[in-house]
Amino acid sequence: MSLALTDRVCVVTGSAKRIGLGIAEMYCREGAAVGLIDIDPQVMEQSVRLNTAGYNTKAFVTNITNQPAVFECFQEIENSLGPVYALANVAGYLDQQKVEDVTPERIDKVMQINVNGTVYCIQGAFEKHAHFKKWAYNQLLIQIR
Ligand SMILES: NC(=O)c1ccc[n+]([C@@H]2O[C@H](COP(=O)([O-])OP(=O)(O)OC[C@H]3O[C@@H](n4cnc5c(N)ncnc54)[C@H](O)[C@@H]3O)[C@@H](O)[C@H]2O)c1
To answer: What is the rounded average pLDDT of the residues 33-54?
Structure first.
């Protein structure tokens, strides 16, 4: 299946490892320029590895719960790669525990990353990239939860 992403800009959060990295690599193979966002600095090494293999990526060590930082990141993506065509929200936090061990602080951490951070990234893509609004309505916004 071809996704026809040649020269499109795709952004993947949580792309330092596992599911997010796999989606980023798929976008690369489809010819996209890929913005990699993760709080884990390992995302920089992954970007170097992918660029060495001939792909076009740029990594951003960004905490998605920091709204101003997210907006700045999307501005940098536009400046360096171009307008965002697709966004895969993969960054997430799973806090598996016994129900009796749940605390307000632990719930807040889960919500901050999985809900607030996801919304900030969508806002970043919408605010900075006029084209994304049109494209997003055509199913180019992916949520992994
Ligand atoms: N792996 C599974 O079987 C599975 C199943 C169901 C749902 N999920 C969900 O899918 C998502 C991805 O799964 P995974 O297995 O790749 O998870 P993972 O924990 O391996 O990777 C998540 C990535 O998100 C990044 N991240 C966390 N908080 C962040 C923040 N504040 N800012 C920026 N980046 C942040 C982490 O550094 C990490 O690289 C998660 O939300 C997970 O809960 C995974």
So the answer is: 98
